[in-house]
Amino acid sequence: MTTTTRQATRRMSLLDTAFVNVETRDTPMHIGGLQIFSLPPNAPPDFVKNIVRRFRNTAKVGRPFNMKLEKTLWARIAPSMIVVDDDRIDLSYHVRHSALPDPGGERELGELVSHLHSQLLDRSRPLWTCHVIEGLQNNRFAIYSKMHHALADGISAMRLSARALSTEPDGEWFPAWEHREPTHKRKRTHDQARTVAAKLTAREWPQIMKQAFQPMFKREPGSESVLRPFEAPPSILNGEVTCARRVATQQLDMERMKRVAKAAGGSLNDVFLAVCSSALRRHLQSQNALPDRSLIAGVPVSLREAGDDSMSNAIGFLWAALGTELSDPKERFAAIRASMEVSKNHLKSLPQQARIAFTLLTSMPTALVLMSGLGAKVRPPMNLTISNVPGPEHILYLNGAKLEATFPISIPVQGQALNITCVSYAGQLNVGFTGSRDSLPGLQKMAVYAGEALTELETVFGVIPA
Amino acid sequence: MTTTTRQATRRMSLLDTAFVNVETRDTPMHIGGLQIFSLPPNAPPDFVKNIVRRFRNTAKVGRPFNMKLEKTLWARIAPSMIVVDDDRIDLSYHVRHSALPDPGGERELGELVSHLHSQLLDRSRPLWTCHVIEGLQNNRFAIYSKMHHALADGISAMRLSARALSTEPDGEWFPAWEHREPTHKRKRTHDQARTVAAKLTAREWPQIMKQAFQPMFKREPGSESVLRPFEAPPSILNGEVTCARRVATQQLDMERMKRVAKAAGGSLNDVFLAVCSSALRRHLQSQNALPDRSLIAGVPVSLREAGDDSMSNAIGFLWAALGTELSDPKERFAAIRASMEVSKNHLKSLPQQARIAFTLLTSMPTALVLMSGLGAKVRPPMNLTISNVPGPEHILYLNGAKLEATFPISIPVQGQALNITCVSYAGQLNVGFTGSRDSLPGLQKMAVYAGEALTELETVFGVIPA
């Protein structure tokens, strides 16, 4: 473990450093993904095992899958990454072959993935693992992967895993961590905020922060309805977070959502927020814990104009009132839409650099931790984060196995026990609910409520007959 | 989580406190056990699931399974335990239902158990988990359990799990954590060292330590051959320990071992050490890493007279030369026997209280950490620990399923990447090898070598024809 040369060291950005430093036993800082595949027709009995074998037989591991934390005394203060030589990467450790107990349903899968997502990554190795899971009902198998947030954000991780699959059943596939020569230069627009952040020095941050936050705390005439941090009501979503996680999933049809958006006069994202709002309201009601005032969600959003339905990259971060105090679904939708509109206009009024800094500082779990100060002990800056990540548009395959769904699994932090993130994939919105186990005993039900909420919206907005 | 009353708080002993305080991400301080069961004839398909169900339906949880660490600022310095009310114990978290991927052999079981043993326990809950594992070849299933060393030592944990099984196929069984009214007072002799330790105050330790260690560091005439701490040669067993574990197992027939002991003129424990020595020698040779001088094992031993073959409770702790530098098995056996004899006599010469303190300070992983100072960075006080734990003498059953084997899984610490522990059960010695993954890539082979070493000893001592 000592043969790595100095040249291979990479200084980490302030942001990535923070992801390492704020990690505790109770709040691991890795992001996860759950992919569900259907076995191809006439798949041999060792189909899954052969995938595991191929995954472990990777000749050359590419970045960031070959990066680990440097382990020096100095690195405890200022973490840096080093590249691990291929012959030191123990792929039989990183790639696991797991199985579900009988009957191998969504329940058993949810339990396994919840436990896998609860476990800290080994800091003496590259910071990722991949678990190929056999025994899933109806001729399916699953792959759960996780990676430290210091190596990649959700969008990058999604792209890394999607590019390893093929768009044809018999097309080429490879392990996501296998080194590939780049075929062409990608446009780097997708990750503007992170790119800017990586370049900022410690000296530049205070000025940027001042620019970004000062307008938020000056109450100007006419801006009464702009939500600001720490206006969120206390709730059971904002208690202590311990290390056990609970993961639940739901798939929503994007065509159905678009029809609702059109009928209701809002964006696809407004519909998604309304679905989440309804699910949250029902869940909190069932626990006798619904606050009188609206729950506030932190929402990374696109700043494109209304009418643009694409689930594109978030380049702004807003506080949105979810209208959870309202029992009428139409009123709730109107409240969400109005709140988002006001917040977007506010954000647009900021100078561009301040907007990016603002987005950065408020959209990342690290920032949430820092903002919440003592975590569960102070008033929550918001009740939860609801994000969407653009995913692959076309059906993908792994050795002929069709990717049926791909769910993001994210990071709860102290004082923010729930995260809802969705990924678009081939006409479906794949929603991942990630919660701290003790705060969210009914998380599976909340996912079910989300599915029912879409039907309710279709009904009240006349998309389907009541 | 805040309803627990003050009365339920229990001050921890200095020793148990140490187990909590020395724990790091790389060196979890939990002990484990792996039980292998054969399914009873005509077991229904949901036999294992019904066990999981019964395990989760425990009306009242008994000590120490209802104890968790108190989470106050003061408790970070001086940890204490609190009793968790039954309605706060989430048994569906503590009891897990797992499965092995096809073909469900010892290899797949070993991989799963290795990963489970690598993971830290959740400090916000009672410090144990139990994993019921289905899908083991040849109509078997397994149970892997783990518990923090601050709650119980190996002997106590073994007794807790054995008492929950029945001695008849149709006898009563219950979850090990279920509260039972004590039927009769047990004699407390089995845990003398720990009991004494629990009573010692911080003020008494320095005097006891002086009594115990001063004689060790005075070289007296005629005591040249007594091994002392830090005489062990550097070896690959004494490098850095990281959090991933590797677990391997072996069963040795105790009748065969007794015949060798008789023919060779030693104890059963001498034979066990000779088996370990041979396995270690072959493993290190295969890695071109066999030290010129003998490996030194820390061995908790009974101080009973020679000829007494019982694997009874360790009440002394010795440094034993394993003779790994010798190629002849007979010479190796003689070296081990001689070294053990000298060490036993030396230990017997200490005053009783000093002997107990000495045992305590040297036999526990905590002590190893403290003694080794900077862990992997200093000369090892010994190369590894080899212990035996007395287990059940008669066949045990769980709902009619026969317990085929029960393996102890122990704790490597910084600078001590390997632990070998055995448990006697119904005429077999069940040996668990627990290693740090990176230090011991060939651990499974070492377990195989141990089996072959017994045959070699039978041959050289004429128990079976060459």
Oligomer class: homodimer
Estimated structural class of chain A: alpha+beta
Instruction: State the largest interface.
Output: A-B, 35 and 35 residues
Order of helices and strands of chain A: EHEHEHEHEHEEHHHEHHEEHHHEEEEEH
Distance between the termini of chain A: 65 Å
CATH architecture verdict of the largest domain in chain A: 2-Layer Sandwich
Question: What is the total tally of β strands of chain A?
Answer: 15
Strand order of the largest sheet of chain A: 5-6-7-2-13-12
For CATH, the homologous superfamily of the largest domain in chain A is named as Nonribosomal peptide synthetase, condensation domain
Summarize the model shown.
Two copies of one chain form a homodimer. Chain A is α+β, with helices and mostly antiparallel strands and 466 residues long. Chain A is 34% helix and 21% strand.
Which descriptors apply to this entry?
lipid biosynthesis (chains A, B); six-stranded mixed β-sheet; lipid metabolism (chains A, B); diacylglycerol O-acyltransferase activity (chains A, B); globular; 2 domains; homodimer; 466 residues; EC 2.3.1.20 (chains A, B); Chloramphenicol Acetyltransferase; alpha+beta
